[in-house]
Amino acid sequence: MTTEYGTGGVGGIDGSGATPAAPPRRLDARLNRERLVAAAREVFAEAGPGASLNEIARRAGVGPGTLYRHFPGRTDLLTAVLRDRIETLCARAERLLGARDADGALRQWLHDFLDHARTNQGMGSALLVETASAAGDPDCRRRILDAASGLLDRARRDGTARADVTVDELVHLVVGIALSTTGGERTGPEPHRLLELVLDAVFGGPRPGSPG
Question: CB–CB of 78/69 below 8 Å?
Answer without folding.
Answer: no
